[in-house]
Amino acid sequence: MSNPMASPQTEECLDEKTPHPGSAMTHRNSEMTITTDDKETLPVSNGVDIEHCSAAQDQDQTPLEDGPLFGWLVVFAAFFTQMISMGNCNIYGVYQNHYLTHTFAGRTSSFELAWVGSLTVMALDFVGPFAGSICDHFGHRQSALMGVLIMTLSLLAAAFATEVWQLYLTQGILYGIGASLTYFAGLSLPAQWFTSNRGLVIGIAISGGGIGGLWMSPVVSGLLNSKGLRWTMIAMAIAHLVLLSPISMLFRSRFETGTQRAKRIRKFGYRKGESLEQDKKRKFVDFTIMKNTRFCLLFVAGIFVVSGYFTPFYFINSYAQQHSVSTSNAALMVGLMNGSSAVGRIVMGLVSDKIGCINALLISTFAASMTLLLIWTFAKTAAVMFVFSILYGLCCGAYLSSTVSVSAAICGLERLATVTGIIYAGMAIGSMIGSPVSGAILDSIGHKTDYLGVILWAGIVMLIGAIILFVLRYITSKKIFTKV
Question: Per the confidence metrics, is the pTM higher than 0.85?
């Protein structure tokens, strides 16, 4: 694994002042120093292609401080953006139940409505490689702000939807694209600022989605029941714009972005070890990492795990009401599932720092599949449903945060946003399959009342994902009690 503290750069603009000939020049807000001895006499084109100027690392630089104060501000910004954007994604079950019982009552099926939530996650994941590359090439802050604007517009458009297909385009695809740009900016950035406690800080950042789901579930349920769909969507759009825009300004990378590198090359020329040919070989989205066997196993495992991952979030609400649980308690279950997932991400982040990120990922995934097969299958009372919601959230929440740590362990930090995006593109396949299949099983085999087939489907595909992760663990180290 590459040295995570090598080549620290910032996202602040470079100093425009022309250096004195023969003197050393240090870029403002950066630890990058260029001397006349470092500059190569290579041709520099005024049209340097930003797309091919990915973040570069200088191996001879002094490592930066691990976990500075501003690093914690970055973690807070990532947590907050996850809380709003992913929190809204995680409570789609509340929206879906309102659509079934009010907005589109008698006009649609669970299968058709499940596609709205699936399209959101699918778009978020499929756009991942491009969102990650935008972060690497143009900056995390720019990516996040672009995402906030798109999410706001998508919710405003969804407020005026009168047909399900319109929700596919607005609350589904468009919101997913915006959420992806914000999500991957906050997902990959904290790892640049910490090494010794990387699992913990990633867990804290990504726990925002669970915390958001905890309080947003009852709030959105109350708004839908009192104000209706249109005003609820408008209120959520305003909240996205007002809350996330200033927070996104705290995003700052420690690595040189593609735009910064292109600017430096145009002004000062190539450094020692850099060349025009290297730039031409770089791609905006580099899929050569798929040649790595361990990375491929992580990619395939994501397809299976996510095929079952969101089923409880989307169906526990209607399942509970089918078993005579009140609307408010059913919404609370969704909230508790999200809240406990936030706790699980932080706890497993600490655990992964002790036992290894691959071990933590395997344990949490296997435990989540067992809660589906052994608890939800037999949950017939409100008390057992509450227990299941909390335990499943604790177990499943760690999957997303641990996946980032495993990606960093396999591929390094230089282009972590892009690599993580590729992993999430695989998860998009699972999103496209998972919840729609669950809805189809409920409508056909379960006759819209029997959820056993839905539960077994979700539990089995997650268990298959855990088996694939066990293979990844075995390839990495055959020693059972080794930290990996």
Answer: no
